[in-house]
């Protein structure tokens, strides 16, 4: 159990996606559509769709938008033109980066991602080059407003979490992917607010960066995250605490 000076923490605190709400809703709608296409339009029978809908609701996405996205995915049509692609690459300081995209034009997307890596001091790599440095985990964020961090961490472990990390504002709770919903339900039943929940690749180890490399890595991750076709970005970069504070301000 340790503090989290990771990209996910910085992005969460900055609220960068919320500031670009139109882009956020587009990305959330695509995730709902792809989840419905992969496993059907019933959230009760489709765990991925259930998570996607919860995430959309947490971002205050209108219910009509969510239903339209489900219908597109379950009914085919324009959703047939979309495909999910995962890209891997290296960032400043030798950091590993995973980029998840949904696109209707593979050539456009790979060109944009390659350009972002190049401009950001990194490079796009072959599939499998860095994926081995990550493992799939359920990830929940619990704000430390009304409960102490230690109380949250102990409750999470009792609920079945495999690990936690924390800072002054929140606790990240890690679970086995299949246990995410159960841990979330248990925590909420115990009175803990769950701010977000998703299944995502988490780095097995973090790479410490000096200030120069950390700034360059942060700019690269932000550049990638800003691309319209990019859904999520993950990295094993460990940023200096002072940079986390400055970036989150």
Spatial order of the strands in the main sheet?
A: 3-1-2-9
Task: Kindly report the name of the CATH homologous superfamily of the largest domain.
Answer: YebC, transcriptional regulation domain
Beta-strand share of residues:
15-25%
Instruction: Please give the alpha-carbon distance between the first and last residues.
Output: 25 Å
Classify the helix fraction into a percent range: 40-55%
Question: How would you classify the quaternary structure?
Answer: single chain
CA-based shape: globular
CATH-assigned fold name of the largest domain: Alpha-Beta Plaits
Quantity of strands, as a count: 10
Run of helices and strands:
HHHHHEEHEEHEEHEEHEEH
- Any low-confidence stretches, pLDDT <50, length ≥5? none
- The CATH class designation of the largest domain is Alpha Beta
Sheet having the most strands? 4 strands, antiparallel
Number of helix segments?
A: 10
From the coordinates shown, what is the CATH architecture of the largest domain?
Answer: 2-Layer Sandwich
Mean pLDDT across residues: 88
Structural class: alpha+beta
- Provide the gyration radius in Å: 18 Å
């Amino acid at each position: 159990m340790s503090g989290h000076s990771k990209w996910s923490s910085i992005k969460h605190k900055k609220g960068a996606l919320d500031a670009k709400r139109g882009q956020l809703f587009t990305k959330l709608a695509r995730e709902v559509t792809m989840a419905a296409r992969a496993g059907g339009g019933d959230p009760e029978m489709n765990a991925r769709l259930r998570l996607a809908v919860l995430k959309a609701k947490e971002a205050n996405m209108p219910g009509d938008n969510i239903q339209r996205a489900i219908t597109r995915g379950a009914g085919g049509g324009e959703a047939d033109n979309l495909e999910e692609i995962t890209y891997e690459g290296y960032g400043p300081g030798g950091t590993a980066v995973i980029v998840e995209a949904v696109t209707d034009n593979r050539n456009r997307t790979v060109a944009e991602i390659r350009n972002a890596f190049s401009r950001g001091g990194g490079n796009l790599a072959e599939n499998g080059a860095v994926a081995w440095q990550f493992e799939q985990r359920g990830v929940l964020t619990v704000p430390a407003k009304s409960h102490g961090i230690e109380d949250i961490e102990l409750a999470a472990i009792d609920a079945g979490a495999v690990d936690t990390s924390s800072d002054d504002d929140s606790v990240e709770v890690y679970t086995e992917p299949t246990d995410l919903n159960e841990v979330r339900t248990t925590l909420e039943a115990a009175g803990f607010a769950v701010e977000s929940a998703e299944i995502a690749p988490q780095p097995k180890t973090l790479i410490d960066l000096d200030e120069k490399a950390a700034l360059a890595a942060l700019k690269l991750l932000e550049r990638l995250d800003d691309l319209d076709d990019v859904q999520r970005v993950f990295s094993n970069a460990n940023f200096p605490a002072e940079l986390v504070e400055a970036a989150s301000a």
